[in-house]
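Open question from group meeting: does this chain pack into something compact, or does most of it stay loose? Before anyone orders reagents, we agreed to write out a predicted structure and look at it together. Recording both the input and the output here so the notebook holds the full record.
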Amino acid sequence: MKKLFFISLMILVVVLESAGQTKFGSDVFKTSAGKLTITFIGHGTLMFELKGKIIHVDPWTDLTDYTKMPKADIILITHHHQDHLDANAITALSKEGTQIILTGAAFDVLKKGSVMKNGDKKVIGGIEIEAVPAYNTTEGRDKYHPKGRDNGYILTIGTKRIYIAGDTENIPEMAAIKNIDIAFLPMNQPYTMLPEQVANAANKIKPKILYPYHYGDTNVSKLKTLLAKNRDIELRIRALK
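Structure tokens returned:
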């Protein structure tokens, strides 16, 4: 009987997933521009919704069927690796007027979109987007994400400032990133950061809320221990492997 129940449950899960009914977790924040909903798709992939406007970050079809997801007003691409730049996902999410923000290397692959370099800023629909550095510093790992090529992004939505770090280590430039309400920091060596590096980055940036993301099989509980004494940072763990 237990075996039959298990098989029936697995069939139900498959049916729900194939029907596009898989549910993702989300958190809601009040901003001066309205209610902001952040949906955690997984890996380095996020979705933001503000008053009907949709922002997708690094959409990847390995995680969901994007033909069943809300169309994008803005798509942010941090870099050109296949788990961050997925042309099929971008096509599925695009509509008339969708603005694709990406790096020069990503533009070379996709052949469309607006390139932002480290330090560039632009405002789209009242949302300020700032491209900031994202790169590896550990010797031998700079081949993954060399300095000057890839982006992290800071979004200013009303009075909220949100830092989406992209694939990076705890680089010196993080010390200049101020007044962050919500930060997404990657934790997946050898490509991004160890828990100790994430804690170091968080202590530099001092976000009010920290979400580790893109963390693969990294032991997230270690980050809890490392930040246990920092009462100014609220650590939130979501399913973003």
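Observations to bring back to the group:
DSSP finds five helices and 14 strands in the chain.
The first helix runs from residue 2 to 18.
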